[in-house]
Records
---
Amino acid sequence: MAVTDLASVTNQIQKFWAPIFMKELRESLLLGALVNKEYEGEIKAQGDTVYVSQINAPTGQLLTVGTDADSFDTQEVSMTRISVQANKRAVAAFEIQDLAQLQSQLDTQDSELKTSLMFAINKQVNNYLYSLVAPSTSAPDHSIASVTDFNAAQVAATRKLAATAKWGKEKGWYLLADPSYYSDLLNATTLTSSDYGATDAPLIGGEIGMKRFGFNIFEDNSAGILTLSPALAGADVALAFHPDFMHLCMQQAPSFKLSDQHSNKKFGYILSVDMIFGAALGINGNVKHILTYAT
C-alpha cells in the first residue's frame, strides 16, 4: 500500500520569512557615549582637524600691604592645546540579492538591517577608543595590576587616586567594569545594600548603573574593554575616568547609502553606512583615567 508522506509533497510546501527578526545578542558600547564630544558636528570631511585648548593658570603673587603691595608683576598668557584629526572611517555594508522579503526591510524606519549596520560601526568606534587608553605609569601609578577582587576597598582606593589627581567634579566621574569585576562589585554589601544608601540612578544606553564613592559605575561587556588587560586574560578589568580624558569628534550623523547593482549587470542592492570620526587623549588625559586589572 502506497502512503503519501511528508517527503512526497516536500516540493509543494511553501516557505515564508517570519514576520519579525530575532534580536542579535550584542555587547554594550558605552565608552563613546561618556567621553568628551563637545566638538561633535564640526567634522565635515575626512582629515578635518579640531583643537582643544586650555589656558594655564598664572603663578600669581602674594604681597604684603605696606611693604610691596603697591605694584605687581604680569605674566604671558600660556596655553596648552591638542589636536584631534578625523582620520578614521568606520564602515559596514550588506549586499542583498533581489529578494522582496529583504527589500521590504530597506526603507522601514526601524529596519533591523540598518540597526545591525549601526551596531557594526559603533563597535569599530568603541574598539578604537579603547586602543587609545594609556594611563600614566609615573608615581602615582594610574595603571593598577594584580587586583583579583574589585571590591569596595578597591573602588575607594581608585576614588582617592582620582581625587589626588585633581579630577574636576562638574562633569562627573565614570567607572566601566567588565562582567567579572562588576560581579565583584555586586557581591560587596557596602556597595549594593540600601542599608548603606545604595540606589541605582544613572542610565546610559539602556544600562542602569550604580552611583558609588563618587563614580557612576556601569557594566561593560564589550570586547573593547577586555583588550585593556596586558595579559589579554579576557576578564577582570576596569576603567575609571573623567570625561575629558579623551575627546571624540565625529560627523553629526552616520551616512546611509542604498545602491542597486544594475550597472554591474547584477540584480540586487548594496546597503552601507559610514562615519568619519577622530579621537585623541585630552590635555593631561593620561592622569585623568585609571586602569585596574588582574594579571
---
Amino acid sequence: MRCRFLSRCLLFIIFTFWTTAGLHALSVGFGGAGTVALGAGEGFGPKLQYGAGGAVEMRIPLLTWLDLGVGIGVADNLPSDASGGFTYAGFLATDLRLSVQAHGTLGKVKSIGELCAGGGIGAAAALAGYEYTTLYFFYPAVTAEAFLDYIPSFLPSIAFRLSLPFTALFRRDMEYSLQAGIGLEASCRFGSGA
C-alpha cells in the first residue's frame, strides 16, 4: 500500500513537470535561512525558538511571471529558554514543499544585471523528531515569502535570492507555532526562459 502511494506521488510530480511545457527552463536552487519561531503550548505562554535550515528547490516556469516550485528542506530548531519554569523542546524536521511563485523585473542594466522581486505561497508536509529522544511527529505547514533576485549580466544563468520566509506550522502539540526568517539562495537555470 505504501509503495503504491509513493508511486502515485512520483507519477504526479513527473506528470506535472511534463505537462507544464516549461521543463526546458528548469531552475535548481540551493539555499539556507536563519529563523525565529514564536510558539505556545496549551496552558503555557509563548516563547521564542531560534533555528536554521537549508533546502533544495526545483522551479519550473508555468508563465513568464509564474513558477511552480517543488523542494526538500531540513530545519533545526533549538530549545526555548527555561524562563517561567518550562521549555519547549528543540526539534529537527525534514519537509517536502510545493509552492507557486510570482515575480517581475524591477530593473535591468546591461553591464550590471537584472533585479527581480516577487512572492510566493505554498504548503509543506514535515516529519520531525524532538532532540535527544526517539519521539517523531508529523505536521503540515503553510508558507509565504517575499524575495529579491539578482541575476548578474556576466552569469545570466545564475540567480542570487534574498528572501523573507514566513511559515505557520500546524503542530498538534502546540496551540500555535509561527516562524519567520531571512534566507539566501543561489540557483542555476538550465535552458532558456519561459
---
Amino acid sequence: MPGKIMTALTRIEADNLWSKGRLLDAKCIYSDLIASSPHMTLNTRANLEARIKLLQKEIDRPVSDGNTRDIDDAIKKLQQALAKDRSIEDLRKRAKTFFGKGLYADALECLKALVRQNAADEFCVRATVECITRQHTIEDIPVAVDLFLVEAFHNAEKAALFKIMLAEKMDQIGYASQSKVLQRHADRFTTY
C-alpha cells in the first residue's frame, strides 16, 4: 500500500508541474517513476508511458505564436486522463465494497466495467473468479464465464486470454474442479 500511495503522490507532483508548463521536469518524474517501480500494474505503466509520449510531443513541438493555446490543449488532455484515472479507482472501490458485502452480482458488474476500460488487475481477476464460483454451480461455470466475456470484451482473442487467466486463477485458489470444467468447455473464445 505505501508504494501505491507514493506512486499516486509522485504522479500528482508530475501532473502539477505539467499544468504549470514545466514539461521536462514532469517527463523526468514520470520516467523516474517507471524506472523505480518494477511491480506497478501494466495499466499504470501504460498510462505513464502515454503521458511521457504526450509530453515529448509537446516538448518537440516548435514554439509558435499559439503557444498559450498549445499549453491549454495539453492541460485539457491531462485533465481528461486524470478524470479517467478517478473513474477507474471509483469502479475498483465499488467492486471491493460490493465484494466485501457479498453482493457478487453487483461486484461483477463493476468488474466488467473495469475490464472494458482495460483496467483489469490481479484483484479484478481474483474477484471475478470468486464472484462467478460463488454464484454458480460447477456445471454452470462455463456459461457464466461466457456471459461475462461477451459483456466485457469486443475482441474474441482478448476474451480467450482472459478466460485462460480465470481458469488458471481458479486452479490456484482452490477451485480445481471448476477450472477443469471451464478448460474443457468449447466455445467461441478459443485461441489457436
---
Amino acid sequence: MNVRTWRPYLSILVLLATVTFFVYFFVKHPVVRAQLEHTSPAALGLLLLIYLGTVVALAMINDATLRLCKVELGASESLLLTAYSSIINFFGPLQSGPAFRAVYLKKKYGLNLKNYTIATFMYYFFFACFSGLFLLSSILKGWLIVLALAGLFLALLARQNSWVKARLQALDLRSWYYLALATFLQVGLVALIYYIELKNVAPGTHFTQSLVYTGAANLALFVSLTPGAIGFREAFLLFSQRLHHISSSTIVAANIVDRAMYISLLLILALFIFGTHAQRQFKVRQN
C-alpha cells in the first residue's frame, strides 16, 4: 500500500481522534466552557476582520511568488484566486489548493512549474524562519535581531553560490524582499489573531506567550495531513507548553474559537465566490 492510498484514511483517523479529544476535554473540563464564555461578540468580529486581512496577505504572497516567476497578475484576480484556492485547500482532498493554483496559472499564463516550485519554497523558507524565531523568542530574546541579521547575511551569501545561482537565475530576484515582507505580514496577523483568542479565554496571557504559541502552531503545518493542520496543530501546542506556558484548557478553548472563526471566514469567502459566480472563470479557463 503506497502513501497515496493510506494517507486519506490516516487524515480521517486524525480528524476523528481530534474531534473526540475536543468533545471529551470539553465535557470533562468545565473550565474550558467557562473560558469560552469570556469571548465577546466584539472580539469575534475583530477576529473575523483580521482573518480577512490574512487573505489579503496571502494574495500579496501569491503576487510576490508570481513576480519572482516573471508573471503579472491583477490585484483582483490574485485576491479571488487566493480565496478560491483557500476553500479548496481546506475542504478539498489532501489540501489541494496549491496544486489548483499551479494548474490554473500554467494553463492561463504558461507558468513554468519548476520556477514556481522554487519560488514557493522561498516562501516556505521565510515562513519557517519567522515562525521558528517566534517559537524561540522566549529563549532568544535580544538574540532574535542578531539571528535575523545573520540569516539575511547567509541568504545573500548563498546567492553567490554557483549551485544556488544556477537554480535561481530563472527567477526575478528583485521581488524577494516583497515576498519576505508579505510573509512577515501574514505571520504577524496570525500572531495577533492568536493573541486576541488567548487573551479572551485567558485574560492573563502575555503577547510574548502568543508569539511562541504562533511559532508552534505555524510549524505544525509542515507535517500536517489534515485540513488546517487539525489535530497536528493542537499536538504541537501541547508539546511546546514548556516554551509558551499556556495551559491545556486554554489551548483547547482558544482552538475551538479559532476553528470556528476560520470556518466562518471560509464560508463567507465561499458565499461571495459562488454568489457572484466568480468560480466560473476558473472552471472555464481550465478547459
